[in-house]
Amino acid sequence: GAVVSQHPSRVICKSGTSVKIECRSLDFQATTMFWYRQFPKQSLMLMATSNEGSKATYEQGVEKDKFLINHASLTLSTLTVTSAHPEDSSFYICSARDSGASGGLLDTQYFGPGTRLTVL
Amino acid sequence: KQEVTQIPAALSVPEGENLVLNCSFTDSAIYNLQWFRQDPGKGLTSLLLIQSSQREQTSGRLNASLDKSSGRSTLYIAASQPGDSATYLCAVLKGGYNKLIFGAGTRLAVHP
């Protein structure tokens, strides 16, 4: 089955530092990946759509200069939280669409295990 | 703007009960609807995906129905087990935008 990995699974950093989170599709190619944020006991909120070889599309209210997204290959997207602050502490989850799938599977998003970011 | 609501927010039941989790959405122009399971501090596991043209999907003890015209979906869990304890999220995919819109989830606790 389609597997998406994230690294690191957990990160603790000091306020003002930058943190990079990787999202990889392990056994399929993904031209489109998605980044979500989840606060405790709340649902997932889409932050941005990452398209291979082009600029990411950010949702309203998400600062593109703070959350840098790079999708340089068909299997890797990265999210960099720049100058992190305690309010950025959250659970970040990525998902990926299988570019090679057909029919209904084309719209299926496969989710990574998430990254817990804690900013002190 | 598409909004997804899940009721109840939390549910605690004894083992063996049959359960119904509800999901409603405001815009019926959806491409599909998915039910996910999320364990504490973990990512999402897809349980069932219903295309807009379908009425229901079944997997083991799980059955999900979709009534697009009324903007509702239900997830039925038969003979619940403690291992079913988790948060269940429903999400709709809006056609043409390729965005999943999630509900806030139902936190389920099944006790022995």
Strand content of chain A: over 45%
Percent in helix of chain B: under 10%
The share of residues in helices of chain A is under 10%
What would you call the structural class of chain A?
A: mainly beta
Average pLDDT over all residues of chain A: 90
The total of beta strands of chain B comes to 11
Q: Rg of chain A, please?
A: 14 Å
Please mark out the parts of chain A with pLDDT under 50 across 5 or more consecutive residues, or reply none: none
Describe the structure.
The complex is a heterodimer of chains A (120) and B (112). Chain A has no helices and eleven strands. Chain A has 120 residues and is mainly beta. In chain A, strands 2, 4, 5, 6, 9, 10 and 11 form a seven-stranded mixed β-sheet that branches. In chain A, strands 1-3-8-7 form a four-stranded antiparallel β-sheet, with no helix packed on it. In chain A, strand 5 and strand 6 form a beta hairpin. With 112 residues, chain B is mainly beta. Chain B has strands spanning 4-7, 10-14, 19-25, 30-38, 44-51, 56-59, 62-67, 72-77, 86-94, 99-102, 106-111. In chain B, the strands form two sheets. In chain B, strands 2, 4, 5, 9, 10 and 11 form a six-stranded mixed β-sheet that branches. Chain B has a five-stranded antiparallel β-sheet with strand order 1-3-8-7-6, with no helix packed on it. The radius of gyration of chain B is 13 Å and the shape is globular. The chains are: A mainly beta (120), B mainly beta (112). The A-B interface holds A 6, 32, 34, 41-46, 49, 91, 93, 95, 97, 104, 107-114, 116 and B 31-32, 36, 41-46, 49, 51, 89, 91, 93, 98-105, 107.
